[in-house]
Every structure is written in C-alpha cells, then in structure tokens.
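Quick one, T. Sequence first:
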Amino acid sequence: MNTSSAITISAMLPYPGDQIRYIARFQDQTVAILSFRAAVWKAAPRDQFIGWTHPKRKENLHLIINNARFLILPWVQTPNLASRILSMTTKRVVHDWKHRYQYAPVLVETFVEISRFTGTCYQAANWCYLGKTKGVGMLGNTKKPQLPVRSIWVQINTTQFIKPSKKYLTAFTFACI
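Structure tokens:
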C-alpha cells in the first residue's frame, strides 16, 4: 500500500461519556480504528511525570485523555502506517475534543499490554515512555496483580499545566522532541 496518497480520519458517533472514536481509511478501505476517552484515575508513573499534587490531579484530570483503543486491521501490512495514523489522529483529537467538550486536552496517555506489544508505534510517533503499571487495575482492592502489566506512554500537547518532574526531564528532552 502506497501511503503517499491521503489517509482520511473520520470521527464516529459518540457513546455516553467523554470519548471520540475514529476510523482511518486509505483509498476507501478501512485500515485502522482508534478511540479516545477520559483518562484513568491513577497511574503512578504518569502522576509522577506530571508533578501534580493529589488536589491538582483531582482538579485537572479531565485535561488528560486516554487512547483506549488502536487497531490496525490484520490484513493491512504497510510499514510505518501505525505511527503515521497515530500522529495524525493525536493532532486531530485535540481539536475535535475542544469542539465537542469545550476544552483542549493537555496530555494524551495510553497503556500498552507488555506481554503482547512493545509500543514501537508510539515511540515512532514521538510519545514518551513513562514506566509500567502494577497490574492492579481500576477497582484493585488488593495489591496483588490481577491484570496484565502495561507500559505507559504519553504525548504532551502543551506544557501550560504540566511540569515534568526532574526524574523524567532528561528522558523527556531527548525522547519526546
């Protein structure tokens, strides 16, 4: 597949809750499906990276959105397509989110299941790797891992509200330009 022709990204009709879904098409063929939604409540590496206190996180968490799904359809075999679609969609979702919900997200996050994927397309699209989840999950009443461990990746849209901690500053400067 020659990606020099235009790839179109179309928004899908919304479900309840803050979210936007996209279908990526190339030459009238669906090649990928993506969805973005509200951010997860807690993710220690993300929270440390941002440097927000608990009250600040509670106040500003709505400014973070989550790339909840990203699927390149299995029959599509095009080098660099995933990072290209991801890059295009990440730029577009900020504007679409602002239009739909009247505010622009300052950070996009995603969680990649380590046992199945490496996150190469996020790295190629200039996202920052922050660390791993503990595998406890949203309703984790126990400290024992119950879910697959995932790598955490973020894309910053503005530094207005986000002040990366010193621990991540060097990695951010070199990995996320």
